[in-house]
Amino acid sequence: MRFEVDTHTHTVLSGHAQSTLLENAAAASEIGLKGIVLSDHGPSIQSAPPDFNISTFAYFPKYIHGVKIYYGCEVNITDYSGSLDIRDKYLQMLDYAIAGLHSFVITSGGRAKDTDAVMGAINNKYIDVIAHPDNPSYDIDYEVFVKEVARLGKLIELNEHSLDYRDGAAENAVLCLDLCKKHDVRIAVSSDAHISLNVGVCNSATKMLEANNFPSELIVNLTQERFDSYIASRAK
Ligand SMILES: [Zn+2]
Ligand SMILES: [Zn+2]
Fold it and tell me: Which parts of the chain register pLDDT below 70?
């Protein structure tokens, strides 16, 4: 299974990743990807740029090395009501917006509060998807959350980095995938690469999808055409 678009990648701008946007695009081109989402962290992660950084995206090309660049962000959820660390005036400039819980910013408040946090964030009209919802550092009521994502017509992320580096993430990811099948929710499969060599690399995610017999028609980034029609449908 090949995903034509990688929906979550970082650059040196995040402050703790190793490659530039040019290097990520070159790596993507080399392995035949058609698009990548640039999704550096929001400013609550200590090393990340301020939110006005997003206003500079307007100066950058839509294609680099033949690879389409979707200008996005991995916004931080900063409280249990789902508040975000990027102001709406910048969120509205993004092609694709990921919101995530990160332990540098917010720790688990237990199932009710963690669920409220992701429910609040996914209900922000500019947010498309919650980053690595399988992160076992939080306790999300997946049935409630996935049903809400279904109602909103948004996406669930399957994040390679989380599967590879977080103990317990795989079990949670399977729960999410099963609920996506049940409620007909589309997923976005991403590398969450922090170095160009990992752009487009989703081996654990691919194995999991195959083992789960996950319907390919629910993978929003399987083809660029499909991802582009999602992006067109979310035009704010
Ligand atoms: Zn993250
Ligand atoms: Zn990330």
Answer: 235-236
pLDDT in tens, 134-144: 999 999 999 99
Any idea which ligand is nearest the CA of 101? 1
Confidence (pLDDT) at 235: 65
CA of 196 to the centre of ligand 2 (A): 13
Name the closest ligand to CA 8: 2
Q: What is the DSSP string of 83-131?
A: -BSS-HHHHTT-SEEEEE--TTT-----HHHHHHHHHHHHTSTT--EES
For ligand 2, the distance from its centroid to the CA atom of residue 17, given in whole angstroms, is: 10
Residue range(s) defining the domain that contains residue 135 = 5-233
Query: How many independent structural domains does the chain possess?
Result: 1
- Confidence (pTM): 0.97
CATH of the domain at 157: 3.20.20.140
